[in-house]
Amino acid sequence: MSEQGANPKTRAQWSSETAFVFSMAAAAVGLGNLWRFPYMVGENGGGAFIAAYLIALVVVALPVMMLEIAAGRVRKGNVVCTYRNVARIGAAYGWFVVLLTVVITSYYLVITGWTLGYTIDALRLGVRDFGEFTAGYNSIWYFLAVTALAALFLIRGVEAIENFSKVLMPLLALLIAGLVGFASTLDGWAQARDFLLTWEPGALANPTLWFFAFGQAFYTLAIGQGYLVTYGSYIPRKTHVPRAALIVAVTETSVALLAGWMIFPFVFSQGLDPGAGSELAFSTLPRVFDDMAGGTWLAIAFFFMFFAAAFSSCLAGLKVIIAAVEEEFRLHHIRAVAIVAGLMVVLGIPSALSFTPVQLTVAGMPFLDFMDQFAGTNTVIASGVIGAGLLCWLMPPQKIVYALGASSRWWSWRIFIVGRSLPFLAIGFLIWQFLAG
Question: In angstroms, rounded to a whole number, what is the distance separating the alpha carbons of residues 116 and 121?
Fold first, then answer.
């Protein structure tokens, strides 16, 4: 299986539509849903955020997801190559997407390091509180270990990602479902149910809530980050894009919602703050497993699966960057992997330092949290809007329709309506936010 170049005749492919679905689901299901979704729900009002998130996902994010996958399939190249063929300014936007993915992946690797550290602690039969875990320089050492492991993994290319994803997704779904079942027996279940299903009157009139909801919807489906374009470029000929995207979207959303039902009963049972931020899962679950009968074995299983899911997200982000570097600069695959891994080490250190004795902060928050808010919400939304506008206004519609696959005309007109109107809707939203603020 060749990884060299962007020639559609020699470019590697997923072995089947099913392989693409597993790989794409594993790419986005990791930290975006297990780590980020619960803490975003906790910080933004519970049920109101979930309602806004689901609306944003169904109405806007899903059509844009299909559009990006189809665009990758048309050109069968990296994200820079794909957008360069759309418009003269497309290459600049493509590199912007790569840069955004570089930033997101740099702190993703730090969080994945935490999951690896917690897995090792569980195997040692001593899972520590998050504050104790980050009292030293664990964030640095585990970050470096995960980065090296990801580089070794990616040397094998898309085949390694595919095989990893086929094993990960079923095991992860079973484990999360089991934890939700256990959470339903806790005293905090009723309080969590009220938090996740109800909201104050007028909460949905808050533009800030919608801003974060759209950010999470785009984040959940990996929009505007190059994942979809890059993974779409490896799609085999017979894949039906709308069907595959729907399966991935339903999987992503289900895991995100289950993660909320898994975490918050424990949060309320332990009397913890649901708005604890990025450390929510890492602060909550060690206490939970410590109090449970058989919690040691469950901790080992959960944190290993958490690490595997987070690691799959890192592989996807790194694949976007490596594909662009390798193909645009015509580098050997192993050299491109080494360069990108080195870049991750340099850029990830500040995020790792924010949870060490150094406690690196920006604007009064940990550097990692600042980067997640800036890149993970603000910039992801902007990137998704710009990309959809470029594709729908400047790419020949017949190419997108062809790339979507057979029997996709219903989705085609919906995708173009959303893509062409999204830049104008974004401007209108900014005006609403300004007037409301």
Answer: 9
Residue for token pair 């990830």: 348
For 267-404, strand residue ranges (E) read: 361-362, 365-366
Asked if residues 400 and 309 have their Cβ atoms less than 8 Å apart, the reply is no
Q: Which residue, 190, 114, 189, 172, is CA-closest to 145?
A: 114
Nearest CA among 244, 248, 247, 276 for reference residue 42: 276
In a domain, 211, yes or no: yes
From CA 333, how far away is CA 335, in angstroms rounded? 5
The answer as to whether 10 is a domain residue is: no
Total of domains in the chain: 1
Helix (H, G, I), strand (E, B) or coil at 44: coil
Nearest to 122 by CA among 284, 293, 300: 300
pLDDT digits (tens, 9 = 90+) for 293-349: 777 887 888 888 788 888 888 888 898 899 899 999 999 999 999 999 999 999 999
Q: Helix, strand, or coil here: 366?
A: strand
What is the rounded CA–CA span in Å between residue 171 and residue 142? 24
- pTM of the predicted model as reported, rounded to 2 decimal places: 0.85
Q: How many CA atoms lie within 13 A of 234 on its CB side?
A: 30
